[in-house]
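Case study B.
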Amino acid sequence: MATVERGPAIYAGSRIPQPVPTILKADPALEDVLTVNFGPNHPSTHGVLRLIVDLQGEHVVGLSAVIGYLHTGFEKTMEQKTWWKGVTYPARIDYVSFQYNELVYVLAVEKLLQLEVPRKATWTRMALGELARIHSHLVYLGTAALELGAISMFWYCFRERDLVLDLFELVAGTRMHTRYFQVGGLAEDIPVGFYDETRAFCRRMPEALDEYEGILDSNAIWLERTKGVGLLSAADAIALGQTGPNLRASGVDWDLRRREPYLAYDEVEFDVPVRHGGDVFDRYKVRVDEMRESTKIVSQCIDRLEEMQGEPWTSDDRKVVLPPREELHTSMESLIHHFKIVTEGFRVPAGEVYVGVESARGESGCYLVSDGGPRPWRAKFRAPSFAALHATATCSADVAVADLIAVVGSLDAVMGDVDR
Amino acid sequence: MAYESVPGLVETREAFGETTLVIDPARLAEACLHLRDAEGFNLLIDITATDYLGWADVDVAGYYATAAGRDLNEPAAQGYARVPEPKPKRFSLSYHLLRVDEDSARVRVQVWLDDGEAAETVVPVWPTADWHEREAWDMMGIPFAGHPNLTRILMEDDWEGHPLRKDYPVGGEPVRFSEAE
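Model:
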């Protein structure tokens, strides 16, 4: 079997370690190397990431990541559940930008079903998706700053995060893992008061973001510890499968919302923040700018949604969507449909599809195989955090051990997403 | 889109607006290198292994769907019985490729493998394949020839079996302290 040489076209000058791209090997000639175990239970590892670090003095000379501590077997479980029940699982995979995994799963099932979704559902999905992005970036910003000693950032970010969760509670009844999106549209209509509350949030958010930047951008410690640390070049980022903010901070203008517009992203105005430093600071900046853009998108969604008062929020295809509750008392067909969908589930035509959306941490994808039955034959989630951790070894070459925390934090991996 | 010049191309399928290139496993790495350098697919999104053991057997899953997808105007079409097309081999490996460029594009490269049959590694083509291939090995037991570090990634190092295989039961892990002991 012929082995392929690494072609020079993309990887010339690459910092990616050889021969294993995800393991930084300490030079055996180095003396006084101390091997240290980080995690898996350590507050700075964002869950249960374990790093085996070779140190010479304070310098990281070798690194390998060990994952799998949060492996939950979601994909195996989903094969046992009907398409309808499966909606609850994806949100728990990436539990910080939960709404996107739910979205990508229902979009994939709808692609297999070739099901049209009413526009109100599409715009609501966009609004809630962007709120989930803000939520996720706030968690990133709060924890990443906390790990570098800026504890007040944590309180400020979690103050706004709570407002986002209040909005989710208002619309879906739960603060996280809403199961509000479902195949065909939404689980329920948008409640009274959601638009006003969301508008109030959108007015508040830009001020809060200015406040965050006011705290961090003139903070000498923050700048020292983030600028020029954890470098990742554009070519290396692409080679290591990076997407989302990590890729855009390395100077690649790539956003699925712009390049492959799904939902109605071609009808809203927003900018894609791109920075060229590829360091921890630029990853922070990209995420803060993204929150600004997300706030704009949410406002535009609310504008459009207010014009859609009284429109249907879910498809009227009764073979897939549960009938309205009140019909169960009067209609035999509705009762049968309800019973069939809940007990046996709806059937999805045979085929395989892949759908990718731009989640808070990059391309969140869902690959589904159906055999025509009521359960997925295979459900696979493309986890952006899994890809983000590929870059740990490359970013950590030549950093000090304290900066390792900044680097891992800036890649913003959620361990639930990594291990699935 | 023409992919005729891809080495080892067996079949091109178009479905749901997605292009799937079925590749001869012996020429997988060559085909991937061609797709990267000649077609510009510079980002490997994902590698998915799928086990088709029991596909199209009786009593495995429901076989109710219409031939050409559901017809929303014909509600009764839901009940048409249809057995899915048989698959060439037990396992499929799907490589989802993305072209990060002005003219973005996606393609799925697929190879079919029997149990124990090795696939060529594509780590030299896309370094990100490292963990994706380790996951496919860990979860499905597909060996990758030439992989620099093919070890388990999500399960423990001493785990037995490959959990996402169809013949691996749910709840199939050994119980350490059972009543029988």
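DSSP finds 17 helices and nine strands in chain A. The remaining cases will be described in the next quarterly update.
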